Amino acid sequence: MMHKISTTEEAREFLDSIDTFLFDCDGVLWEGDRVLDGVRETLSLLRQTGKRILFVTNNSTKSRSMYLKKLVSMKIEATEEEIFGSAYATAYYVKNILDFPTDKKVYAFGDKGLKEELEAQNVTVCGIGEDNEPIDFDTLHTIKPDDSIGAVILGFDINLNYRKYAKAFTYLYHNPECTFIATNEDSTYPIHGTVYPGTGAIISPVITALGRRPIVMGKPEKPMIDCVVDKYHLDKNRTCMVGDRLNTDILFGINGGLKTLLVLTGISKEHEILDQDQPIKPDFYANALGDLYFLSQQQ
Fold first, then answer.
1. For residue 242, what are the β-bridge partners?
2. 24 is an active site residue
3. Any known ligand binding at 24?
4. Domain 3-58+220-297 classification at class level
5. Which residues are 241's β-sheet partners?
6. Where does CATH 3.40.50.1000 sit in the chain?
């Protein structure tokens, strides 16, 4: 049954029931460049009471070190070990879950954050930063199958072109054993108050041409939570996913067997979760993350 946290007793009881909090960022911690009211105080309270904090994001363009700089710039206390983006999740999955062979390479398109995380796991990666030149019909035939490629990883790539599509397709099409991974399937990419086509949109040509689905790492898919649980040895019964989207954050928590808290400062609104036909419902919801601090401090 879904509960709204709106009293001091409810806030304290909720906080006492959770040891680890997984936070989405945009719409939960901040909106644009503004940290939402009470967020810093809530995070500080959680740390003071011995709670573990993890920041979970689908953004595959940034490595953990890059994302840490953003958190620090917004005066949100964090460490690199507390950040679990889809770029790091992908690299962790390849190295530790797939046990990727050391004699194989990954072909990827994406941004430098993805490459940085793969190389940090000692995975040899090619493609990122190498295939930005256009291709023509006279040279298309030079793209050949490559048995040294053990996985193809597709992430958000602002410099995407047909050369990259052709290489990714060729390596997968001619080798059914080659692992196919997408960092996430977000349909849009939010930036500067608007949205543009996201990873899910730009990788769809490869999926359509192959007739094959990738392993998807980002929320709401289960592989990412498997990586989080494997790395941090979490007790799922005392772990909560906090987000602002029903179909990504909350579904991610549900798919992973976690408790879930929806905050109403982002995408999903109260009327949606109160709709009897809504199939995705959180265990708890609150007007804002800051309510956990403000309510729990009342006498």
1. 23, 261
2. yes
3. yes
4. alpha beta
5. 22, 260
6. 3-58+220-297, 88-216
Residue 291, pLDDT score: 96
> Binding site annotation covers 26?
yes
- The model's pLDDT over 149-203, given as tens digits with 9 standing for 90+, comes to 999 999 999 999 999 999 999 999 999 999 999 999 988 887 777 778 999 999 9
Could you tell me whether strands 239-243 and 259-263 are parallel, antiparallel, or unpaired per DSSP bridges?
Answer: parallel
Q: Which of 26, 37, 146, 226 is catalytic?
A: 26
pLDDT of residue 192: 74
62 is an annotated ligand-binding site residue: no
pLDDT in tens, 257-293: 999 999 999 888 999 999 999 999 999 999 999 999 9
- pLDDT tens across 56-71, in order? 998 898 999 999 999 9
Is 33 annotated in the active site? no
Decide: 185 and 216 in contact? Cβ < 8 Å.
yes
Q: Residue 194's pLDDT is what?
A: 78
Question: pLDDT digit string (tens) for 123-151?
Answer: 999 999 999 999 999 999 999 999 999 99
Domain covering 88-216 assigned CATH 3.40.190.10 in the classification: no
Q: How far apart are CA 38 and CA 291, in angstroms?
A: 7
